[in-house]
Structure to design on (284 residues):
């Protein structure tokens, strides 16, 4: 027993060296990824925590960016669209501003970010979209003051013809699921026909049909928001299916759920992953 203790004591420096090496590798990788995505805004968050909770600052770097953000199924732009959507769903404005910077840093145009915020009016409500749009204006002004000229993107000229919004919404919805409009009409036509009308006309004709954001990014944003909310499993299931139908891969959706461990917590990520697994099994 005494010999075993002596051996363990002799090994401690070596074990500590390997532990420090592992920590250092994760920290270095995470710090590099943090700078790549969030830049100065992310660094300021981490630095602000050093005096009150250096452990929290370290976990942000090691886990959030060293582990999760270093996965490579999603590109950085997609990750930031998911992060922005999750944070809008939570109303987490200070953290949202960091990731609005991150979205611009990773290739989103101003138009694309505005489109994500507009789309969140459907899934998280108008108040959260209003707050997010105001936060985005602040971020743009701050970046302009620093001499950062962000890409505007395509200026959208929306159609003024509102006579066919219902049929247009049904058509746009059919890109996600060809039978969903019919299911909604059968389920709600007698009880709440206005719900069907407003869903098709606003959510899909007015918002989802807009050209400023690719369909895949729209579904990534929606899946992230619904996974974060955690109170709409059937809608999350529908939009995961819709994401797969417009070209988002299963591995990409798995990574959205892993990203949600950072922004919405592990229960939300586990629930979302379970729904994804159900869908994959059903589609086999």
């Amino acid at each position: 027993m005494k010999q075993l203790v002596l051996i363990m004591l002799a090994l401690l420096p070596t074990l500590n060296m390997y532990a420090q090496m592992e920590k250092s590798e994760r920290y270095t990788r995470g710090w590099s990824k943090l700078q790549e995505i969030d830049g100065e805004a992310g660094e300021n968050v981490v630095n602000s925590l050093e005096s009150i909770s250096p452990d929290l600052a370290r976990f942000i770097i090691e886990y959030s960016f060293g582990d999760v953000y270093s996965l490579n199924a999603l590109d950085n732009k997609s990750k930031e669209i998911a992060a922005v959507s999750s944070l809008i769903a939570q109303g987490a404005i200070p953290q949202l501003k960091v990731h609005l910077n991150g979205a611009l840093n990773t290739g989103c145009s101003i138009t694309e970010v505005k489109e994500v915020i507009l789309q969140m009016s459907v899934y998280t409500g108008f108040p959260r979209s209003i707050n997010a749009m105001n936060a985005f204006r602040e971020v743009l002004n701050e970046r302009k003051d620093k001499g950062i000229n962000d890409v505007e993107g395509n200026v959208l000229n929306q159609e003024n013809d509102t006579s066919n919004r219902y049929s247009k919404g049904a058509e746009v919805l059919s890109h996600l699921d060809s039978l969903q409009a019919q299911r909604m009409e059968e389920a709600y036509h007698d009880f709440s026909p206005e719900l069907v009308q407003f869903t098709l006309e606003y959510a899909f004709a007015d918002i989802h049909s807009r050209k400023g954001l690719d369909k895949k990014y729209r579904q990534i944003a929606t899946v992230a928001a619904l996974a974060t909310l955690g109170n709409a499993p059937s809608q999350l299931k529908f939009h995961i299916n819709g994401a797969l139908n417009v070209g988002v891969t299963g591995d990409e959706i798995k990574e959205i759920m892993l990203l949600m461990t950072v922004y919405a917590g592990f229960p939300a990520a586990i629930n979302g992953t379970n729904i994804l697994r159900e869908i994959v099994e059903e589609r086999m």
Summary: Confidence is low (pLDDT under 50) at residues 4-9, 12-21. The radius of gyration is 22 Å.
